[in-house]
Each structure stands twice: as structure tokens, then as C-alpha cells.
Design brief:
InterPro entries: DIOX_N, IPNS-like_FE2OG_OXY, IPNS-like_sf, Iron_ascorbate_oxido_reductase, Oxoglu/Fe-dep_dioxygenase_dom. Residues 182-286 form the Fe2OG dioxygenase domain. It comes from Hibiscus sabdariffa. This protein has 331 residues and is an alpha+beta fold. The chain has a single domain (10-330), classed as B-lactam Antibiotic, Isopenicillin N Synthase, Chain (Jelly Rolls). It has nine helices and 16 strands. It has helices at residues 14-19, 29-44, 57-71, 75-78, 141-166, 176-179, 252-257, 296-302, 313-323; strands spanning 10-12, 47-51, 91-93, 99-100, 103-104, 108-113, 184-191, 206-209, 215-220, 227-230, 236-238, 246-250, 267-269, 277-284, 291-292, 311-312. It has an eight-stranded mixed sheet. A hairpin with a 2-residue loop joins strand 4 and strand 5. The N and C termini lie far apart (41 Å). Bound molecules: L-homoarginine (HRG), 2-oxoglutaric acid (AKG) and fe (ii) ion. Residues 209, 211, 216, 267 line the site of fe (ii) ion (FE2).
């Protein structure tokens, strides 16, 4: 349920970060304040900035720096970690190899997924079996990303606990066989800048979409506004960078679990600046093989009719992956 929001709220999650390992956190007045703010943001906007998250700003910067460095390498270097079906769709894809609703996006990427061991999810997970591809250059690339992914996973787990409380459940309501073994996706994205030689007037960095899972943590360059969020009346509200914060948004699976009370808000990216922009996008997802449907408890809380939607998360993801690439580019 999106509204006519004009701006995106900022939430200081530090009490949740401090107490989020304790399942009794819901009794803490500071945590309850955060939970209230999460509830409001998830109902009204589906997007919020997260501060007080505990991920070192130096690491947030470092992962953007190595991403910039990688995308500045010559094309043949980048192709050393090329994404193909045989790499489990993990690796580098060049500009316009990715498509959104049939239109190629003006972005290049590297995609990473949580490990899928052979046979782990039967035929469902097969296309994602493969190893993540790490560039040799820059040298600190793999170590910084792995540390970053570990911290984002932990932060997301705590935010999800806050959200479970906000929905009137217990802190671990959405764990166990639902989201206790969370899948994750990381997409490092580079959006070329506009220049007289490269005007790209009508080119969209990422077309209108919703994200697929539970929560997304966007770590974007500080000096360029390019991400835009659609409100109920169709206006595009910019997610202007606030240094040191993540932009957090809700994905399709959380919308279903919450019976539509929380919205997976539409967004897009247009880089109108002359500068190259990067974004490190971390996607926190449910268990790969879990069937996601509106939870009875939340149907009651939402006070509306049960949404007629359900999906096995892994199927939803695989369906997207299969339809996201210009196939000829992957040979
Ligand atoms: N992994 C996630 N959620 N990324 C969202 C990407 C959305 C754009 C993609 N080309 C698409 O059309 O879905
Ligand atoms: O570049 C951004 O700021 C957001 C990218 C995005 O929405 C996505 O990849 O899902
Ligand atoms: Fe997105």
C-alpha cells in the first residue's frame, strides 16, 4: 500500500542493531520506537534510509571504490569473469546485456549469489549452481566484498526481526523454514555518465521494477542522484544520497508475507550526471525453497482480504534470472 509520499524517511536502527540478537528485544522501549518507524515506512513508502546500522563507513566506501576500479578496467579484463549460463549466471555482464521488461538497461554489472551446491535444491536451483567469480584486480576485491556481505546479512536479519515485530509477530516469526536460512544476491552496478560524445538522452540505467525478495540494501555513490521511487500518484521521488546510509526497500516476498500491508514499491535508475555512478546492491531473501504466501497472523493484522499470491522464492528468482538477459550476449 504505497501512499502519496514526497520524501523517504530516515530511520536510525541503532537500538535494533544493539539488541537484535536478543529475542526479547521487543520489550525494549528504544527498539519499540524503531519498530514503529519501520511499520510506518513499510506501509507508506516501502523505502527508507537506514542509519546507525553499524557497517563501517570505510567499508561501504571501499566496496564502491573497488567496484569503480573494476568497471574502469579494459573490456577484455572484465570478460575474464564473464557471466554465462555455465557459471551459474554469476559474473560480469556488459552494458545493455541486462533487460528490464524487454528493454536493455544502460548498466554493467557483476552478479553474486549465495552458494548453491550441486543438487542442493534439485532441478529448481540447478541454473544457479556454479562459483562466484572474483577479479584478481583490484587485489582487495574479494576480501572486502565477503566482509561486506557478512555484515549486510547480519544487519538485514536484524531489520527483518524489527519488521516481524512491526507486523505483530514474534521477533523470529519469519525465520526457521521461512527465512532462517536466507538466500542473498549481490549486484555491483555501474551506470555510465552522460557526455556530449555519449548523450544517451533516453537511456534508462535500470527500468521500472520491484525487487524480488525481502529487503534490499543500496549503497550508492554520494554525489549523484539517480535512483527514483514511484509514489501513488505516479510522481518520481528521488532517493538523494545521504552519505553513510543505506537505502532500504521491500521486495516481492515481503509484500506477500505481509498480505500487501507492506509494499514492494516501483523504482528506476536514470544517471543524468556526467559522472560514472556505481551502486552496490545487496538483496536479502527468504530461504530458497520456501513457499511464500500471506501469513495468517498478518492477514488478520492487515484487516484486508487474503492476497491471492504465492510463490516458491527460488522459482520466482529463477524465472527472473532466465528472463533478464539478452541471451546472445551470454555466449
Ligand atoms: N536482484 C534484483 N532484485 N534485482 C532487481 C533488478 C531488476 C531489474 C531486472 N533487469 C529485472 O527486470 O528484474
Ligand atoms: O542503482 C540503484 O540505485 C538501484 C538499483 C536497483 O534498483 C536494482 O538493481 O534492483
Ligand atoms: Fe531495484
Amino acid at each position: 500500500m504505497s501512499t502519496d509520499f514526497k520524501s523517504i524517511p530516515v530511520i536510525d536502527v541503532s537500538p535494533l542493531v544493539a539488541k537484535g540478537d536478543d529475542l526479547k528485544m521487543g520489550q525494549d522501549p528504544d527498539v519499540r520506537q524503531v519498530v514503529k518507524q519501520l511499520d510506518r515506512a513499510c506501509r507508506e513508502t516501502g523505502f527508507f534510509y537506514v542509519k546507525g546500522h553499524g557497517v563501517p563507513h570505510s567499508l561501504m566506501k571501499e566496496v564502491k571504490d573497488v567496484t569503480h576500479k573494476f568497471f574502469h578496467l579494459p573490456h577484455h579484463e572484465k570478460l575474464k569473469i564473464k557471466l554465462t549460463p555455465s557459471t551459474g549466471y554469476r559474473g560480469y555482464q556488459k552494458i545493455k546485456a541486462n533487460i528490464t521488461k524487454g528493454v536493455p538497461d544502460l548498466q554493467e554489472d557483476i552478479d553474486y549469489y549465495r552458494d548453491v551446491k550441486r543438487g542442493m535444491y534439485g532441478s529448481l536451483g540447478e541454473i544457479l549452481e556454479g562459483s562466484n567469480q572474483w577479479p584478481q584486480d583490484p587485489a582487495n576485491f574479494k576480501a572486502s566484498m565477503e566482509e561486506y556481505i557478512r555484515l549486510c546479512t547480519d544487519l538485514s536479519r536484524k531489520i527483518m526481526r524489527g519488521i516481524a515485530l512491526a507486523l505483530g509477530g514474534s521477533a523470529d516469526e519469519l525465520e526457521g523454514d521461512k527465512g532462517g536460512d536466507p538466500f542473498w544476491v549481490v549486484r555491483l552496478i555501474g551506470y555510465p555518465g552522460k557526455s556530449p560524445a555519449n548523450p544517451q538522452t533516453n537511456d534508462i540505467g535500470c527500468g521500472i521494477h520491484t525487487d524480488y525478495g525481502l529487503l534490499t540494501l543500496i549503497n550508492q555513490d554520494d554525489d549523484i542522484t539517480a535512483l527514483e521511487i514511484k509514489n501513488l500518484s505516479g510522481e518520481w521521488i528521488p532517493a538523494t544520497p545521504i552519505p553513510g546510509t543505506f537505502v532500504c526497500n521491500i521486495g516481492d516476498m515481503l509484500k506477500i508475507w505481509s498480505n500487501g500491508l507492506y509494499e514492494a514499491t516501483l523504482h528506476r535508475v536514470i544517471n543524468n550526471s556526467p559522472k560514472y555512478r556505481v551502486c552496490v546492491a545487496y538483496f536479502y531473501e527468504p530461504n530458497f525453497d520456501t513457499l511464500v504466501e500471506p501469513l495468517e497472523l498478518f492477514v488478520e493484522k492487515s484487516g484486508r482480504a487474503r492476497l491471492d499470491q504465492k510463490a516458491v522464492y527460488g522459482e520466482h528468482l529463477v524465472d527472473k534470472v532466465k528472463n533478464n538477459f539478452v541471451m546472445e550476449e551470454l555466449n
